[in-house]
Amino acid sequence: MSKKLFATPATGLDEIDRVLARLRARFFAHRHYRELQQSFATLLNRRRADLELGSQNEARGIAVIGDSGSGKTTAVRRLLATHPDLQVLQPGIEKAEAVSLSLPSPASVKFVGLACLNVLGYPLRRDRTSAIIWDLVQNNLRLRQTLVLHFDEAQDFYINQNAREMQSMINTLKALMQNPDWPVSIVLSGMPQLRDLINMDPQLARRFTPVHFTKLDPAQDGAPIMKMVAGYAEAARLEMGTDLHDRSFVRRLIHAAAEEFGLTVELLLSAIEIALRAGKSQLCRSCFIQAFARRSGCMPDFNPFLREDYTSINARLLLLGQVPDEANPEPKKKGRKK
Question: pTM, whole model, 2 decimals?
């Protein structure tokens, strides 16, 4: 951008804030998202075909598994929100074919059931047993014609839970999917521990299709990532700096984002903000150098965009290269002379 844009007194926002908001609202359909789309289309079409025939066969599920920063949560939410033939949960509309919620903490069977009722608009005013709560959940899902129930952070079904609680949750999920009156498809998104929960029960595992948000591979994902960088830069009215066309840049970018798609987008947005705030007309490597330094707090020698052997850097760690406080003890105070 050729000129700096200042905040308006009324809102405190400037045009750069609005540009960044529009960029955050963008979505780049990467290969994992397309796989999720295909799996979801199969699941939804199967359920709709059963309804058309008047049959209530057991429903199926999808397990979206990936590390932190992989973009799995954003992908599922985007899929549900933009599906052309799916009524998501909305205030004032009774029909809710897709319902999404994040697991409460602790993710006990009872607490999860209560969270479902709250999202469905049926909060309980007094204590009930888990069995009654889940009967109410199932009844509300039927009344609202819910076809898909999405649980985010689903690894919490497994983490810090005893074996009895995990088995109860497994049984609850199976009961939702094979209810004779109104079976509901389940979409679980979460960290790799989610896989361990599903694999605990072969009957549950056979009902789920996995969609694994694997690490980015520069050989496979390098070209699409650079296409995304160019698209976001153009939307921000920034030219691509010549140093971004260097062969090593996209490899360094992917490594700096811990090889996770979601973190790559975050780093790109940060670099664009730095360019815009500085009044630059180009998005260049120096913007990414600053973006990584700002995110990680690392010293220059631990910045993947600067270091020669960048692959040795753990990009998830903060403050790499900073000297710990204990290594620089304050000088001892001299005692008063007597």
Answer: 0.89
